[in-house]
Design goal:
Chain B: Belongs to the ubiquitin-conjugating enzyme family. Chain B: It comes from Lentinula raphanica. Chain B: Keywords: ATP-binding, Nucleotide-binding, Transferase, Ubl conjugation pathway. Chain B: This is Ubiquitin-conjugating enzyme/RWD-like protein. The complex is a heterodimer of chains A (about 750) and B (about 180). Chain A has about 750 residues and is mainly alpha-helical. Helix content of chain A is about 60%, strand content about 5%. Chain A starts with a helix and ends with a strand. Helices cover about 40% and strands about 15% of the residues of chain B. A 4-stranded antiparallel beta sheet of chain B has the order 1-2-3-4. The chains are: A mainly alpha (about 750), B alpha+beta (about 180). Chains A and B meet through helix 27 of A and helix 1, helix 2, strand 1 and strand 2 of B.
């Protein structure tokens, strides 16, 4: 089938090959020579067992090898030789594979890193054994290295990787300063290098380093907030980690400069990792760090520096918000605590991030939560006037008192102006380093609430001052003066009037007493300027009424254009009861006094009769409590249920302990002042008047129209949804009716 | 509280206005608006029975609508009358213009135009009067007409005969509708 042409071609190829191998030798001498050279060469580079002698040891052969290789080279048969060498290697590699398996099994059994080390050295032996002689050229050498590593890596199982990692870790300086560091095992690293393990497992070695750093940071820094740890950590890196790194990353370095240059890259990676670990740690601890402030300022400094290096701002915000949500903003936390922590957060985050972006993001939920708490304002205000029962004041005394700040537009002519930080949200308002009080007050949109609450508080405190304790009034005046600086003169005008009322009362009282001495000393309040005090219609019976009337008469003679309206329930009465066998002295609230006065008319009263004689508004429980005061003092006795008898003569039966209780029970509770909530209800009543007014005159109106018309009412700030709810409530009370979305007053 | 501060405010505002003549017209209108706002507040909170008034729109405080109920014990008892109140820009130095919108058969009220003849709305006007005082005056005027200077002579002559007067009154009266 073969054509002539094909035959001719094969013949030509044959001739050519023959000529090349035979090298123009006569006959087939050339061929024989070639065959011999081939055998020698193969023998020379054959992968041997470890116990076989090296071919190069016999010096005699050396020239022969040289000659053989030259011959093969001339015949251009070297590539074929290489191939067959690699093929041999592949076949022989099974031996190594077996050994590796044995070692790894051993390691799995013992978990001893020495096994791995031995394995590495064993592999190195093989490697050296098989390494072709340098004289044979670079091609052969590199082909060998490549092929050896390929085969090697293919047999190294994950178990080896694990062991390798352990082995590397064991070379690290120990965390415990007591034990001496392992001596640097240079040989081992060289073996790694030779076998190409360093390049292949670079990630693993790095991760060993990272894990070591992490462990060290966590071990040394957890809970250590009082001083900055970063400096110590950097020193530790230089002392302990850098020498370790030198072994592998700067192994070829000849000079110190060389080493430094080589380490620069990897060193900064390690430093970054250290900063990141510390940052993560502090982020995790941030809530407690803030609690510990100012004892934790070191940690905050660290955090600030780490933040510069590692961008973990978002994670810090996230963590802190979550911690706040979980640990702070729940019903179990006291409002005061929340405020204290909020102030601490403000201070801490100002250290970490002076522009205030972090603070803004973290504070938002806290502020929103505080706004919902009914007693937030009270807490802040009572703190402002220093009316706290223990606990740190929210404000440092040494913080300068300054007027509350408003959010101001940026002053673009300011040469120190800086743009907003990049991660600031769209509604971020540059928080100028304002004082804490301004920040707290700005929780609410309006300051009026604070001023109102301040009034309520001031009213409580002023009314609680019994006798003429000028000192206390002066104290209040001082705190009001300080607050004036913050809130401005105008806002606190009302408080000023209240204080003036106190001094005026004394003056008026002095005058009235000089006209006609009286045993009552009223505090005269200008009704409009005081918060709404709960009205009551306790009518003081008997001599009390007489005193009141006499006093009122003198007063109207002195101030004809004014009229006294008594609020007896806010006072206290000093009583001396003259009973048949004893006298009892007591400082009591007016209700008690009123009751005991009634007992001077008759000896036995029932509870209902007493209440009827004092004023029907008196709460039964309050009345009962008042009577029990006297029972405790041994003046009254409950005969039958709700019927009380005056004990003109002390009952002897009770033990002495009871007698000694005749000490005055000074239960001077703070007079009840309506809370902000009640005032809001009052506000709603005003709005209702307006709604009534507009519906009366304008007929039926849509909700939108009502909402817009309500703008005429001063201070109206409700949303249309709130209005809708309000109207719905009014509808249920049958005050209004709605048809087709138009509201009108219900026809009477 | 609010009442106190807001009632303090206008007096200060007016003194300020006098000192600055340049912006007098605008801030003058501002002070009138303020005064009207205060009057509205006072009126709303006063809860005087049978009288009420409210601005027509929230944008214009100068036009109000009022409602007057006849005082019990008079022929007007049980009837409600709607009136319109227009405040001039120089209020309260000039009296507001008030007219009955509901036809009102009354000696001092023009039955067709609703014009009212009341001295305090004319020459006896004083800046101390307010919407509230005007409304109270009008309410009492219903029960006690001034027959000396009648606008509606028929009504004036018929006044003495209360029953016949009531028939006439009801003939002209139209009850209020819901829409303004």
């Amino acid at each position: 089938m073969a054509t002539d042409a094909l035959r001719a071609q094969v013949a030509a190829k044959w001739q050519e090959s023959f000529a090349r191998l035979n090298q123009n030798e006569p006959g087939i001498v050339g061929l024989l020579n070639f065959s011999q050279a081939w055998d020698i060469a193969r023998e020379c580079i054959r992968p041997r067992g470890l116990d076989e002698p090296d071919p190069s040891t016999r010096n005699v052969d050396r020239s022969k090898f040289q000659a053989s290789f030259e011959l093969l080279n001339r015949c251009r048969r070297l590539p074929i030789l290489l191939e067959s060498f690699l093929e041999d290697m592949r076949k022989r590699f099974l031996v190594i594979e077996e050994e590796v398996k044995e070692f790894l099994l051993e390691y799995e059994r013992t978990s001893n890193t020495t096994v791995i080390l031995n394995l590495v050295f064993r592999l190195l032996q093989w490697y050296k054994k098989w390494l072709p002689m340098q004289e044979l050229g670079a091609t052969l050498h590199s082909a060998f290295v490549l092929s050896f590593q390929t085969h090697l890596f293919s047999v190294l199982t994950p178990t080896f990787v694990r062991g390798f990692k352990e082995l590397c870790a064991s070379t690290l300086p120990s965390a415990d300063p007591e034990t001496s560091d392992p001596a640097p095992n240079v040989e081992m690293w060289q073996a790694f290098e030779t076998l190409g393990l360093l390049d292949r497992y670079e990630n693993i070695i790095a991760s060993v380093g990272y894990e070591h750093i992490e462990a060290h940071v966590v071990a040394t820094c957890t809970g250590q907030w009082s001083e900055s740890m970063l400096g110590q950590l950097r020193k530790w890196m230089t002392d302990k980690v850098v020498p370790w790194m030198l072994l592998m990353y700067a192994r070829n370095a000849t000079t110190a400069d060389d080493a430094r240059a080589m380490l620069q890259n990897v060193g900064s990676r390690f430093d970054f990792h250290m900063a990141k670990t510390l940052c993560d740690l502090r982020t995790k601890e941030i809530f407690d760090i803030i609690i510990d402030y100012p004892d934790s300022s070191g940690a905050l400094q660290d955090l600030k520096e780490c933040m510069h290096r590692v961008d973990q701002r978002a994670s810090l915000v996230h963590t802190l918000r979550k911690a706040n949500q979980k640990r702070l903003l729940h019903p179990g936390a006291d409002t005061r605590l929340i405020l204290t922590q909020y102030v601490a957060i403000i201070k801490c985050l100002r250290i970490v991030d002076p522009p205030g972006v972090l603070l803004f993001k973290v504070a938002d939920p806290i502020r929103r939560y505080l706004r919902e708490r009914p007693d937030t304002i009270r807490c802040i205000v009572s703190n402002l006037v220093g009316d706290d029962d223990g606990g740190d004041p929210l404000v440092d005394d040494n913080e300068p008192i300054q007027p509350l700040q408003h959010w101001e537009l940026d002053d673009y002519t300011d040469p120190n102006w800086e743009p907003e930080p990049v991660d600031a949200g769209p509604d971020f308002r540059a928080n100028k380093p304002s004082d804490v009080i301004s920040t707290l007050v700005s929780i609410y949109d309006s300051r009026d609430l604070f001023v109102k609450e301040l009034q309520v508080l001031l009213a409580q405190r002023l009314l609680a001052i019994s006798d003429d304790n000028t000192e206390k009034v002066e104290k209040e005046r001082r705190s009001i003066e300080i607050l004036k600086i913050r809130f401005g003169e105008a806002a606190l005008q009302v408080c000023e009037v209240m204080l003036k009322d106190m001094t005026d009362s004394k003056r008026i009282d002095g005058h009235v007493q000089s006209q006609k001495a009286s045993i009552i000393h009223p505090t005269i309040l200008s009704k409009h300027f005081w918060p709404m005090l709960e009205a009551t219609d306790i009518g003081m019976p008997g001599q009390f009424r007489m005193f009141q009337e006499e006093y009122a008469k003198e007063f109207s003679a002195f101030k004809p254009d004014k009229k006294l309206r008594w609020l007896p329930h806010l006072g206290t009465v000093q009583l001396v009861l003259h009973l048949r066998d004893r006298t009892v002295e007591a400082d009591v609230p007016p209700l008690e006094a009123a009751f005991i006065e009634l007992f001077s008319q008759q000896d036995v009263w029932t509870l209902d009769e007493l209440i009827a004689n004092v004023g029907s508004s008196v709460d039964r429980t309050a009345a009962l409590n008042a009577l029990l005061t006297w029972v405790d003092l041994g003046v009254l006795k409950e005969q039958t249920e709700n019927s009380f008898k005056l004990l003109e003569e002390a009952e002897t039966a009770p033990e002495g302990a009871r007698e000694s209780r005749t000490v005055t029970r000074s239960v001077v509770e703070l007079p009840p002042a309506p809370s902000v909530q009640q005032q809001q209800a009052e506000q709603m009543r005003v709005y209702w008047k307006f709604i009534e007014g507009m519906l009366t005159n304008l007929g039926s109106l849509s909700l939108d129209r009502i909402q817009s018309m309500l703008k005429l009412a001063p201070g109206y700030d409700q949303s249309i949804d709130q209005l809708s709810m309000f109207m719905e409530a009014a509808r249920l009370e049958e005050l209004v009716a709605v048809r087709d979305g138009m509201w009108k007053l219900a026809s009477k | 509280m609010e009442q106190v501060t807001s009632s303090l405010a206008p007096s200060r505002a007016t003194t300020l206005n006098k000192s600055g003549p340049a912006s007098s017209s605008q801030s003058g209108a501002g002070s009138v608006t303020k005064r009207l706002g205060n009057e509205l507040m006072t009126l709303m909170m006063s809860s005087s029975p049978g009288i009420s008034a409210f601005p027509k729109t929230d944008s214009n405080l100068f036009d109000w609508i009022g409602t007057i109920e006849g005082a019990p014990g008079t022929v007007y008892a049980g009837l409600s009358f709607r009136i319109s109140i227009h405040f001039p820009s120089n209020y309260p130095y000039v009296a507001p213009i008030i007219q009955f919108e509901t036809p009102c058969y009354h000696p001092n009220v023009d039955l067709k135009t609703g014009t009212i003849c009341l001295d305090i709305l004319k020459d006896k006007w004083s800046a101390v009067y307010s919407v509230q005082t005007i409304l109270i005056s009008l309410q009492s005027l219903l029960g006690e007409p001034n027959n000396e200077s009648p606008l509606n002579n028929d009504a004036a002559t018929l006044w003495d005969n209360q029953e016949a007067f009531k028939v006439q009154l009801l003939r002209h009266y139209r009850p209020l509708k819901d829409d303004a």
